[in-house]
Amino acid sequence: MESLVVPVLILLAVVAGVIVTYRAVRGRRASGGGAPSRPAGPAQDQATELARATAGKLSESEHRRLYAMIAQGQPLAAIRLYREVTGEGLRASRDAVGALAAHPQPYRQQEPVEAVQEDDEPQRFPYRYRAIASKGDVTREVSSNMLNDEIYGRIRSLARSGDTEAAVTALTRHSDISPVEAREFIALLDD
Q1: By C-alpha distance, which of 98, 62, 60 is closest to 79?
Q2: What letter does residue 174 receive in the DSSP assignment?
Q3: CA-CA distances (angstroms) from residue 188 to 32, 152, 156, 171?
Q4: At what angle are helices 179-189 and 149-160 packed, to 10 degrees?
């Protein structure tokens, strides 16, 4: 019987060592140390895209001031600054500043937006172009034979760059809607 005690003790020591090693490796993988990282999910992609769009709405000095506030741990001041600069609501500003904090973006020089050419009369195409914009439960549609992909793209660029009045003017010029309807439509594009 004494001859079996030593091998059983050795076996127990080996099993204990394997268990401790297994738990250490598993714990390291759970904390991200040893396991390969998974690709970013749709939520992270949306947050990164929101951060890019948010950074694009800021001038260089506003971008610098906003990131200084984030770095100093002043999120409320950063949200307030973003609201003042963009005129967006509280929830949208909170989400935008949160996205910038989670996914830092370098300042990029804003590309100048081409103005829509002001001809005497817009060209009429042999088809009706449908432009649809929606936000939440609100959906607006503009259908016109004076719109095409290129003109609508320029109108969208004007709206996203913050030149709302130029976008409204271009949209009313290339469709048969009123300026009030055009403003409602453009308001859905600026996000």
Answers
A1: 98
A2: T
A3: 41, 14, 10, 13
A4: 70
Tell the residue number behind the tokens 């948010």, with chain if given: 54
DSSP code, position 134: E
pLDDT in tens, 2-56: 678 888 888 888 888 888 888 888 777 666 554 444 455 667 778 888 888 888 8
* Under 8 Å between Cβ of 186 and 135: no
Helix (H, G, I), strand (E, B) or coil at 136: coil
Chain centroid, CA 117 distance in Å: 30
In order, the DSSP letters of 68-115 are HHHHTT-HHHHHHHHHHHH---HHHHHHHHHHHHHS-----PPPPPPP
Token code pair at residue 80: 């307030």
Q: Could you report the per-residue pLDDT of 76-130, keeping only the tens digit for each?
A: 999 999 988 888 888 989 999 999 999 888 888 766 555 445 556 778 888 888 8
Q: Which residues, 6 or more positions from 132, have their beta carbon under 8 angstroms from its beta carbon?
A: 139, 140, 141
Tokens coding 28: 């390291």
User: How does DSSP classify residue 129?
Assistant: E
